[in-house]
Amino acid sequence: MVDLLQNKSINLVTGRKVLQLVIDGDSRTPYLIVQENKWFQISDEEQIRKICVEVVNSNPKLVQKYKSGKVKFFGAFMGEVAKKTKQKGNMVLAEKILKELLEKNQ
Length: 106
Hints:
It contains 7 helices and no strands. It has about 110 residues and is an all-alpha fold. The longest helix is centred in the last third of the chain and has 14 residues, at about 90-105. The termini are far apart. One of its GO terms (cellular component) is mitochondrion.
């Protein structure tokens, strides 16, 4: 499982799910669990960018609040990306892209 995390095949959320399954007695290897559940991390920059653009475009009120200085709303954007990727998105990449999109339009 450490290898899956280190080579960024999965994120921490997925790692926790896999660990819980192993603790609960699942006899499959962590890799097999991830493979059979299609839990590999989404790290394709174009795919993440598309989702981020969609999130920004579909939340104009949040964008307005964020741009007015209420940066705490950034977490809402991150939450939407996580939801759209079913917790499988590379959130480090998503954060970078979201910041870029939100700063570009200021």
